[in-house]
Predict the structure.
Amino acid sequence: RVEFRDYLNLRYGKMPEDLPKTCNCAGNPPFTLDHALKCHLGGHIDKRHNDVRDTIVGQMKEAFSDVQKEPTGESDKAQLNYKTAKNELNSHPDMRVYDLFRDGQQVYTDFMVFDPAQPSYLETDLEHVSLGRENEKNRYYEERIRTIEHGVFYPSIISTYCGFGPKLNE
């Protein structure tokens, strides 16, 4: 009920009622609609990511018998080449699917949903931004999944305008 009221307000260019005046993130900026959509503390970015992840995990579970959301791995603090590689026990990609492309193969993915209208992206073409986000995910997960989990990693990059990164377009 409250969400519907807020949606109508936004649809007609009005701010929803009962919003805080400032955000609790660094610097306490004014809590505007634009800030709410981009602030990592406010939760919308996490919700956007989790909604995509949960939808795709649900669809994969209908098609495959062995699908796991946020699988825990065999992380053993192995020395990896990338300093940015996620090798802690609590760091994990968003999904693992067994037998997706080949029998016996584990395919892992981690989702990133980004807003191409962010000021930092406006001077860069969408394909270049998507490729940069894919490279970032590969640095985080690809080496660990290949060497420790013995699986394959596919970054899943999606723009808020429904564009897909190069790997998803293959």
